[in-house]
Design a protein that fits this description.
247 residues, Spore Coat Polysaccharide Biosynthesis Protein SpsA, Chain A, 9-stranded mixed β-sheet, two-stranded antiparallel sheet, 25% strand
Length: 247
């Protein structure tokens, strides 16, 4: 049965989905404080910053729904009432934070709503320029029997991102958050697929995936999935301005 979009003004996307995705949950991390962007979007949560005339989070959710996903869980905290007011009654699930939990704590806090054996996680302030094949990522993850698969993009000029290095069989051999290393690495694209077993390894206290969690998975079932697209994010005023043009 066709899945009806729940948001208005459907946007057309350049996507590379080879087939409908599996019935799998998607957790969008939308609870961050967005301090660097506040001077450009005063009074709004970062994910509701307008890009091409509409909130960035609309763009992400519509992309997922257009691709066939239908269980979207929003991890929300800072100015969460604005997000709830926009999406309430539209089939979106809210995992609410009372205090900031970080990227890792936000996922742990959403545990009660996650039903699928594997689930996608993505940052609410970024996407991939050329779209991504979610089915291919899912199949790779299952074939590897991975605990976590991280989508990897080509590096960009700025150095404030996680440098990821791959070893044999696409297993992640090194992860350095906000690294200045120059050669042989990929960019963490902020999109992951996780096996539900990973939730038992997560703390209930605030923590960062990138700083506190990922380095401890090196050598285990932690894989990278390289793509060709560029990461578009709105995390700083400069990138927010650039995203306006790209979308």
């Amino acid at each position: 049965m066709a899945r009806k979009l729940i948001l208005p003004n459907k946007i057309k996307y350049k996507t590379k989905e080879s087939a409908n995705p599996p019935e799998i949950d998607v957790v969008i991390l939308a609870g961050g404080l967005g301090k660097r962007l506040r001077r450009a979007i005063s009074g709004k949560p970062k994910v509701l910053a307008e890009v091409a005339g509409r909130p960035f989070l609309d763009i992400l959710i519509n992309h997922l729904l257009t691709a066939g996903f239908y269980r979207v869980i929003l991890s929300i905290g800072y100015l969460k009432d604005q997000i709830k007011d926009r999406y309430k009654g539209k089939g979106i699930i809210f995992a609410e934070e009372e205090d900031p939990l970080g990227t890792g704590g936000g996922i742990k806090n959403a545990q009660q709503f996650i039903k699928s054996e594997n689930f996608f996680v993505m940052n609410g302030d970024s996407w991939i320029s050329d779209g991504i094949d979610m089915r291919a990522i899912h199949d790779f993850h299952k074939n590897k029997k991975a605990l976590i698969t991280m989508v990897l993009s080509r590096p960009r000029e700025e150095k404030d991102y996680g440098a990821v290095f791959l070893g044999e069989d696409n297993r992640i051999s090194r992860f350095n958050e906000k690294s200045k290393e120059e050669n042989g690495h990929f960019l963490n694209a902020g999109i992951y697929i996780m096996n539900k077993k990973v939730l038992s390894k997560m703390k209930t206290t605030p923590f960062s995936l990138e700083v506190d969690f990922f380095p401890g998975l090196i050598g285990g079932a932690f894989y990278g999935f390289p793509i060709n697209g560029e990461v578009i994010d709105i995390g700083t005023p400069e990138r927010y301005k650039a995203a306006q043009q790209k979308f």
